[in-house]
Amino acid sequence: MTPQYSKSLKILHTADWHIGKRLEKFSRIDEQQQVFNHLCELANAQEVDIILVSGDLFDSYKPDIVSIKLWLNTLVKLTNGGKRVVVVVSGNHDAPEFIDVFSDLVLDRGIIVVSKFSHTLPAGKLTDYVMVTKSSSNFIELEILGIDFPVRIITTPYATEKSLSNLLLDNTHTGNLAEYVSEYWAKAELSCNADGVNILMAHLLFIDTLVDVNNIPKNEPGENSIIYHGGSAIFYPHHIPNCIQYVALGHLHKHHTLTSSNENTVISYSGSPLVYSLSESGQSKYAIEVNLLPNERPQLNPIELKGGFNIVRETVEGVFGAIEFAKDNQDNYIELLVNCSGALSEAEIESIYKVHNKITRVIPQISRLDTQPSSLDEHYQLEEVNIEQLLKNFLQSKQNINSEELEQLYLELYHSTMQESEVSNS
């Protein structure tokens, strides 16, 4: 006989907050505050029982005090006065030691923060609404008021060889990182069964088994590689324990689900709450509502988040085209590639910036100065271009820098390089 439950467990899954992230000279903190307010409103409106935050809480190992306050205030607000449990794992942008400092400080608020492998919680009451009934290394079983069954979660922060070094079975193991972690999950699986719901949350790179490694989404410039030596940090659905029903992932910024051979398992990236790069331009952003019962397939309901601006890159013709596009796109951050026959003057660049307060960069696309057929080693005749003006335009477009000393230094480096080039070619 199938057990009858009074209600399903309702989860809200989010990840990749990247608090403190900037876009060129622009802070995104106000947008983050706005979208987190919406997230809290959703949690209350949907009567969510538990929040899962799957890593990359901050954008930097050393977040500033404004970012830390926003993070803590958001977590506390999400608990709804301790009525709701929030479970957090750290990501590759987070310093495990720094995040771990807060784990004991927020625990009695119903916030469980996991930044290290071998993390174990003491059993007992967290709040008047939530109790830890069982706990082992990176595994927790919760009893939540109003839920008729145990809630089990395997928590997995971002995995590296260093973070796992003290946890491997022995030093003779020859498997890759994914195999190490899946062994770790297999131990935790022994505490899972069909009388409760079983969840895995992680900040890792998962791809479908049939996907070519060469088609993995590329990182943004400046990001560390998300693939370890030989692809050993790539995880596949077969690594997931059979008991797991919902896999709450962070690491990739676009919401999508992966295919599992287990009909009762759903693997999902929530995606980031804001558009953080040009590669995400035009993407809708979501928090994932998940309804879950023991021994059943999860039901997902992606809810679009409100707040934040899109990021757009556009190629335009001349200063007039740049101004017209900027006027028509006031609700976006914009990067402008301006087709022009020569360097833009300071006055021209200033006229573009004046009509829009969220221009990230103005990049002149200077056409060839000659019309003769090019040879196989075609190159722009830079000696015919006003290098001084190009440099001033570049510094102005980056951070509104106006420094004669810095300009002179760059020019000295340029001319020195050109002279060395002439000597080597003579």
Structure write-up:
This protein has 426 residues and is of the alpha/beta class. The protein has two domains: 9-304, 4-Layer Sandwich (Purple Acid Phosphatase, chain A, domain 2), CATH 3.60.21.10; 310-420, no CATH class. 26% of the residues lie in helices and 25% in strands. It has ten helices and 21 strands. Helix 1 (29-45) packs parallel to helix 2 and helix 7 packs parallel to helix 8. It starts with 8 loop residues before the first strand and ends with a helix. Mean pLDDT is 85; it is low at 219-232 and 373-384.
Give the SSE layout.
Layout: E1 9-14, E2 22-23, E3 26-27, H1 29-45, E4 50-54, H2 65-78, E5 85-89, H3 96-100, H4 103-106, E6 111-114, E7 124-125, E8 130-136, E9 139-144, E10 151-156, H5 161-164, H6 177-189, E11 197-203, E12 205-206, E13 234-235, E14 246-250, E15 256-258, E16 266-269, E17 286-292, E18 299-304, E19 310-317, H7 318-328, E20 332-340, H8 346-354, E21 359-366, H9 387-399, H10 404-425
Parallel strand pairs: 1-4, 4-5, 5-6, 10-11, 11-14, 12-13, 14-16, 19-20, 20-21
Antiparallel strand pairs: 1-17, 2-3, 7-8, 8-9, 9-10, 15-16, 17-18
Helix pairs in contact: 1-2, 7-8
